[in-house]
Design a protein that fits this description.
800 residues; alpha/beta; 10-stranded mixed sheet; 6-stranded parallel sheet
């Protein structure tokens, strides 16, 4: 643990780094140099703690594998967890600098796309805080998630080179580099004992170099590691080709190796894109498996005890190839037989399904797998053969067997491989867990009910309340008499006792107003927009996807604008709708919805009838640091996904914890929020999962609903007509009215509009709005990541 460090000692350490690294003093250093120097000081302090930890004390380790880790900014987070925030801020101020300006120099570590990556970051913090020995594994993407730019009212993607400024946090570990092999041929060989040996020839090798990011737990007692794999070529240059003047071709091998870790989620709507994605996944899991096995042998000596000391946590199907890769290592390198190797793999791998959407249930073309990882293809075929025998013996039904096979219709089904191998399969909310058991994986559940469970997601409350909302934190500590909630978030429930206190309500409203003004300064800096801070902040921030139904909210906004034009003097609670979302580069319909929202914002924000009453703000380049400004200011949280589609969601938890009132469907974590909040403190609308299924089964007719609803007819007429920028959105209208309305926007619109009206009637009262804020924060402690990780440790990982 790091002892107390004064601001003077911190200043001296930072000045020493400025001099040694950049040959500058605190007077001549740029803000970026000061950030880099401060980050290096913090990183080196964490390295010292890590150096004195005794790894032999750990009986079992968790290896948390995720294609995404959306870490955001690390300087203030690590300083806070180490108890050094005051020292860092004081040292920077003593140098005549604004600490906030220095913190702004840090780029967001964009190693993720949305909830999966942010969840992984929260869990890394909690694992370290709770003293679990855990290593996060991912890819060291050079560019990460793209920067979003709005050009001509449309989303464009710009490369985000986050690593240049993040070098201060990354520690290269060249001594732990491993070789990953792609392609080639497998030559079978049988020894005199009848054992099969696979000789791999003609392959292409890529070197995986680990770059470690240290993660400090709160209190500084435990430092864990996020190990990020960087792809390098064994040969930097083909000297013969270079000497022949073939300069570009001489670097081809290096370029093809390094492209593996160039970007997060390359578009896979073409063959080369699919090949690159699969390469990324195998590169990741092979390097990780080799790393974990090597460390195991160094520490424990016997490969047969591997499952006793390790849990390999698979997050979504991106890292499923860890299963056949471990089989390859156990059999080909350590000589285990199939049954023994399979027994170890089954005891050490667990699978978390994070979404029921098809993109997270990957299926790879059979020929692609065979070409890229030929030895794994052999192993997958054998897993599939044995799994098929088990299914046939259990079901005696070809249809059921077929849909659960790993290899089926010339595709490799990754989720089915997880079902065959993993000792635990969990959902990420109770509703989601039920969907896995009763729908998505119902066949396997009927055979192995003990294999399935759920752990409702959680958030890092120390970051998403304490750090981003210091005013609320200060009030909580004052009301509760201590700061115990930092490690015991369940103590937030005691705030219920203050919900009827008029003085506390007034202070809650004052804190929210201060947060709105802080957000307004962010909006001016980020987008040059002047926010109406007297309006209710109505927020929908999340990945742009049809099922999350940003379009449903847009429909309601269109209606509100028309209502104001019908009656400019109507009683109307002023409101600002805030959107933040990125659409995947190849997701055309999602990008079209962004275009609509930008058109709508431009039209409304320049409409004199709407001035001071209705405003729309779409945050450009939504990211973790943007969320840290938005969440404390939010007063309404829009959680309006189609029931049965959102596995859990964590944005809903962050907004709830900061006192926003939720309007939402009975979906994902909303279900458990509603159980705690009830109708008095949360606003539910829309069809339930089973009601949607029944409506579909009986013949859903969206055009018939529109024909009988004058408000919907006017909304779609306006979308067809277009806005002040001359753009019509008749294509979106057609997809809903005549294209089947896959996500039930039309079916749920009336319920949504009525519910939103009821909510605004309630929250227009300052006292009631404050009471709702207090009740939401009070009931939010159960959604802390510390609770979720404790459940994983006890129920899935079986570690202390």
């Amino acid at each position: 643990m790091i002892g107390e460090i004064s601001r003077d000692e911190m200043r001296s350490a930072i000045e020493d780094k400025l001099c040694a690294r950049f040959s500058v003093t605190s007077k001549t250093a740029t803000d970026e140099q000061l950030f880099q120097a401060t980050a290096i000081v913090i990183r080196e302090l964490m390295s010292r703690v890590l150096a004195i930890e005794n790894p032999k004390d750990t009986e079992k380790e968790v290896h948390y594998m995720s294609m995404e880790f959306l870490m955001g900014r690390s300087l203030m987070k690590n300083a806070f967890n180490l108890g050094l925030s005051d020292a860092v801020i004081g040292a920077l101020e003593d140098m005549g600098r604004s600490a906030s300006d220095i913190f702004e120099e840090e780029p967001d570590a964009g190693l993720g796309n949305g909830g999966l990556g942010r969840l992984a970051a929260c869990y890394m913090d909690s694992m370290a805080t709770l003293g679990l020995k855990a290593t996060g594994y991912s890819i060291c993407y050079e560019l990460g998630i793209f920067k979003q730019k709005f050009v001509d009212g449309k989303q464009t993607e710009v490369a985000d080179n986050w690593r240049t400024a993040a070098e201060s946090w990354l520690i290269p570990r060249y001594e732990d580099a491993v070789e990953v092999r792609f392609g080639g041929q497998i030559s079978p060989h049988w020894d005199e004992f009848g054992h099969y040996h696979a000789e791999h020839t003609g392959y292409t090798a890529v070197i995986a170099v680990p770059r470690d990011m240290l993660i400090a737990g709160y209190g500084g007692n435990e430092i864990n590691t996020l190990r990020l794999w960087d792809a390098k070529s064994p040969s930097s240059l083909d000297m013969y080709l270079f000497s022949e003047g073939e300069y570009v071709k001489s670097m081809e091998q290096r370029t093809m190796a390094e492209v593996i870790t160039k970007v997060l989620y390359p578009a896979d709507d073409n063959y080369n894109g699919k090949m690159l994605r699969l390469k990324q996944q195998y590169f990741f899991v092979s390097a990780t498996a080799q790393d974990v096995v090597r460390k195991h042998i160094e520490k424990w000596g016997d490969i047969r005890s591997f499952a006793k000391h390790h849990t390999m946590q698979i997050n979504d199907t991106h890292t499923t190839l860890i299963i056949p890769e471990l089989m390859r290592i156990f059999m080909d390198q350590y000589g285990l037989g199939w049954d023994e190797a399979w027994s170890i793999v089954k005891e050490c791998t667990a699978y978390t399904n994070h979404t029921v959407m098809s993109e997270a249930l990957e299926k790879w073309p059979q020929d692609l797998v065979q070409q890229l990882v030929p030895r794994l293809w052999e192993i997958i075929c054998e897993i599939n053969r044995r799994w098929c025998d088990y299914l046939r013996e259990s079901f005696h039904n070809d249809d059921i067997v077929g849909r659960n096979l790993i290899i089926h219709n010339n595709q490799v089904h990754m989720a089915n491989m997880c079902l065959a191998a993993c000792y635990k399969v969990n959902g990420v909310s109770r509703l989601h867990g039920d969907i896995l058991k009763n729908d998505l994986f119902k066949d396997v559940y009927s055979l192995r009910p003990q294999q399935f469970t759920y752990v409702t997601n959680g958030i890092d409350h120390r970051r998403w309340l304490t750090q981003i909302n210091p005013g609320l934190h200060k009030l909580i500590v004052e009301l509760l008499g201590n700061d115990n909630y930092l490690t015991k978030p369940e103590e937030l429930i005691k705030l219920k006792d203050f919900a009827s206190d008029s003085e506390v309500r007034a202070r809650i409203n004052a804190i929210k107003q201060e947060n709105k003004e802080h957000f307004a300064r962010f909006a001016m800096r980020n987008d040059g927009i002047v926010l109406n801070t007297d309006a209710i902040m109505d927020v929908q921030v999340k990945r742009l996807h049809e099922y999350k139904r940003q379009l449903l909210c847009a429909m309601r906004i269109v209606s509100l604008q028309m209502q104001l034009h019908d009656n400019p003097n109507m009683e109307f609670v002023p409101r600002t709708f805030v959107f933040g979302a990125k659409a995947a580069a190849g997701y055309k319909l999602a990008k079209r919805i962004i275009e609509l929202l930008l058109s709508l914002a431009n039209d409304i924000n320049n409409d004199p009838v709407c001035k001071g009453k209705l405003q729309v703000y779409f945050v450009e380049n939504y990211r973790v640091s943007a969320a840290e400004a938005i969440v404390p200011a939010a007063q309404v949280s829009e959680q309006i996904s189609t029931a049965g589609k959102e596995a859990s969601g964590t944005g809903c938890m962050k907004l709830m914890m900061n006192g926003a009132v939720t309007i939402g469907t009975l979906d994902g974590a909303n279900v458990e929020m509603y159980e705690r909040l009830g109708d008095e403190n949360m606003f539910l609308f829309g069809l339930h999962t089973e009601e949607i299924e029944n409506m579909r089964r009986n013949g859903y007719n969206p055009s018939g609903i529109v024909a009988g609803d004058d408000e919907l007819k006017r909304i779609f007429g306006r979308l067809n007509q277009g806005f002040s920028d001359g753009k019509s959105y008749s294509d979106l209208v057609s997809s809903l009215v005549y294209g089947g309305d896959q996500y039930m926007l039309i079916a749920d619109y009336r319920s949504y509009a009525d519910c939103q009206h009821r909510m605004y009637e309630r929250i227009k009262n300052d006292d009631e709005r404050a009471r709702l804020a207090i009740m939401n924060t009070a009931q939010s402690g159960v959604f802390a990541a510390d609770r979720a990780i404790a459940e994983y440790a006890n129920d899935i990982w079986h570690t202390k």
